[in-house]
Amino acid sequence: MKHAALLTSALIAMQSMAVAKAGEETVKLKAVSGHELVTGRCAVCHSLDYIEMNAAVMDQAGWERTVRKMIDRFGAPISDEEAKQIVQYLGSQYSR
Predict the structure, then answer these.
(1) Which residues contact 50 (CB under 8 A, 6 or more apart)?
(2) What digits encode the pLDDT tens for the residues 35-94?
(3) Cα 73 from chain centre
(4) Number of helices followed by number of strands (H, E) in the chain
(5) What CATH number was assigned to the domain covering residues 31-96?
(6) Contact at 8 Å (CB) between 63 and 91?
(7) Cα–Cα distance for residue pair 56/41, rounded to 1 Å
(8) Coil/strand/helix, residue 30
(9) Whole-angstrom distance, CA of residue 55 vs CA of residue 63
(10) pLDDT tens digits, one per residue of 1-38
């Protein structure tokens, strides 16, 4: 359990140190419930612009499949409870 708390702290710290690449604007997601969790977990591995780019073709089920893929195939450090919250946020804010 201690390891999980340390990992979570490290991920949050990494997220706050993220720097935009030259010529790129920082993507700001909609600031509603779930925003910080999505930013903290997703930006560790990729740019948040993927969320906005995919919103036009995604629905709740699509986001669920995508989050599950990030966990299962790419080893995203996201708990089941966090995954539910992330899918809820993406489904309500970034779906067609």
Answers:
(1) 42
(2) 999 999 999 999 999 999 999 999 999 999 999 999 999 999 999 999 999 999 999 999
(3) 15
(4) 5, 0
(5) 1.10.760.10
(6) yes
(7) 22
(8) coil
(9) 9
(10) 566 665 565 555 555 444 444 444 577 889 999 999 99
Q: What is the three-class DSSP state of 77?
A: coil
As a whole number of angstroms, the distance between CA 46 and CA 24 comes to 13
**Residues 85-95: tens digit of each pLDDT:** 999 999 999 99
With beta carbons less than 8 A apart as the criterion, state whether 42 and 51 touch.
yes
- Tokens coding 96: 């067609």
**What value does the CA radius of gyration of the chain take, rounded to a whole number of Å?**
13
Residue 16: both structure tokens together: 């706050």
- How many CB atoms sit inside 10 A of residue 90's CB? 25
Rounded to two decimals, the pTM is 0.72
First to last CA, the chain: 38
User: Encoding tokens for residue 42?
Assistant: 């997703």
Residue 24 is encoded by which pair of tokens? Answer: 């790129």
